[in-house]
Design goal:
- The longest helix is centred in the last third of the chain and has 21 residues.
- This protein is an alpha+beta fold and 247 residues long.
- The chain has two domains: 121 residues, Electron Transport, Fmn-binding Protein, Chain A (Pnp Oxidase, Chain A), CATH 2.30.110; 116 residues, predicted glycosyltransferase like domains (Thrombin, subunit H).
- The protein is elongated and about 60 Å long.
- It has four helices and 16 strands.
- A nine-stranded antiparallel beta sheet has the order 1-9-6-5-2-3-4-8-7. Strands 11-12-13-16-15-14 form a six-stranded antiparallel barrel.
- A hairpin with a 4-residue loop joins strand 3 and strand 4.
- Helices cover 21% and strands 43% of the residues.
Length: 247
Amino acid sequence: MSQIAQLSEAEIEERFHITGKTAIQFMLLGFARERDAFNVQFGPEREQFPTRLLGILPDKGQLVFDCSGSPDLNRRLRDAEQLMFIGRPGGIQVQFAVGPAIDVHFEGGRAFAVVLPKSLMRLQRRENFRIETPRVQPLQFFGRLPDGALLNLPVHDLSVCGFGLNAATLPDELLVGIRMENCRITLPEDSGPLFATASARHITEQASRSGQRHWRIGLQFSDLPVADQNRIQRYIVRIEHERHELS
């Protein structure tokens, strides 16, 4: 039985569903900025076609996405009462349901618009092993925000696909979808700093038992060279070995 199958509906709702208008808008806007690919399913025959999220219309509370190249598919989608979007941006399975679509013009072209979903499900199926990094003397991330400000935060977890950061406060310039060049992480006992380009894929607000707020920030590597992937894998193996020795 899978780990997910053992969870109650309430636990699934808490762990995997994103709710709240602001959080959903930020996440979908990030997907739109990256032009992440989704499939949209509709109708009793569960027809589908590939599409891309194009943007958010916050004043109308709408999500805009690309049309199909087939007029017949577009017509049948327009007649559907409910649509389901499914994608894997950044290797994370994302899906959400919305109501019927309407025709709109967006950035000079034809598109569809739907009312923003009330919830969004994120379910990460990790194809690459991710490890929580040591809390004592944590790895440190250094990067530059779009305004040039230095971002220095501790690393929470790491894989060859990306990493998570912890933040006690959230800089205004740190938004889903931003891209940071020449980021730096130093791996202990390694030959030197690891430099990479990374994009912010999610920003999740959390609260401690005492009620203190903090944020978990997920970043994805962009075209990380194989040599640097191997450096991360060696670090992961070394940490796992040390933890096994202590257990």
